[in-house]
Amino acid sequence: MNRTNILEYLEHTAGRFRYRTAVECNDEELTWDELAVMARRIGSGISRRVRTGSPVPVMMEKSPLMLAVMLGAVYAGCFYVPVNPDNPPERLMKIFHLLEPEILVTDRKTAELSGREDIRVFAEDLVKEDADPARLAKIREQSGETDILYGIFTSGSTGTPKAVAVSHGAVIRFIRHFTEIFGITAGDVIGNQAPFDFDVSVKDIYSSLMTGAKLVLIPKEYFATPPRLLDYLCEKKVTSLTWAVSALTLISSLKGLRYRVPDRVNKVMFSGEAMPPKQLKLWREALPHTHFYNLYGPTEITCNCTYYPVVWDYEEGEKIPIGKAFPGRTVFLLDEEDLEIADPGRQGEICVAGESLARGYYRDEEQTGKRFVMYPVGGGRPRRIYRTGDLGYYDERGRLMFAGRKDFQIKHMGHRIELEEIENAMNAVQDVQRSCCVFQEKKNRIAGFYMGDAEPAEVRRDLKDKLPAYMVPAKLVRLEAMPLNKNGKTDRASLKQMG
Fold this sequence. Notes:
This protein is an alpha/beta fold. The chain is built from 17 helices and 26 strands.
């Protein structure tokens, strides 16, 4: 059946698995029927307060109730915007200024952090409202697959956050491929690591919604204690992990897999950063029968555009390919003259065409026009593409390799330098678990941070053997743990201020 609204999948799944658990977090859980009923009540309440097509920011800690609120916003003919309560006040102010929302849905636990009492509505009150089936049916009749489903904020180069607007149709088409390729079914238990304002969670939420798999939300504080996290994964019988690289390596680098192995996990999809081969090997040794996949893609193309099944161990210093395009996508490289690159070894900007591109940046036509452009892919008629700002190249076997961000490319001592190249060399040093390099502009130096038992002098000596002198970090700092931002990625901004 050709469904064009994500709620059709919720209703179909709720009809099939009415009394099975849809989502749980610790001792709080909702069945599929309860989730659908709650979302309709909330949606009716929201529709009485805002116009269709409006953004509905939802500022709560992730929970089954927050999921019901997000789906409720969709029932109201609106689109939801997850807002992390950990955002500093200045960033919240910028987010609300861009959205100009009519309401802000929050809960009593986080309400004071919003600073927007004028538009605040409590989720606990919306749940108590009566559902209005006729009202919701009328809204649905006017809906289409190009309607915005959600907005997710990403950082902007100017310091102002950008809201990536993604449609129902884009999510439906991507998740269909995602669940089919990775074999996600109603029998799976999805362990959700990412906060809801990070697009990795989109794969968890809608894979569950479209298949009936149980969604287990993992509280963020569990990631501070790997044994507690592993106990939780085992207790909940989690089978599928779609996690940021930093979350996986947090467990392996702190020797958590020696404590306990989540042996029901049969598939692991990782993304967000380059996976250190040393850490991936630890996971593959612990879970020898599990399928591992390297995923790549920015928020603007709906989660991911390429995937690569990892079928053997990579040596330190080797890069793991980012693989081939998902069905319905075309992924290609452009050089500095905007010509397509076909030969191996030449770096170019990774660009994406085809289905599931975002609609653009909400209320930001200038940035949308810069990144979403028309291009004659393969010499054919011009098509809408997204320029990722990431660099890549084809290896000798024609596999696409990630080569870092354009904005991680620096010029230092007269040389153009990719910081990821230095990190790759550091990760290959014996007794270095993982690393991150930043350029500290104020001190005009490259600083390298790493986890592991190696002494800074040993790391420096090894790097001098692998890199030109101008690429060896002037400052090397050993850390007990890498600082992480709210999305579970290495906090490069924090590292720039260290040392």
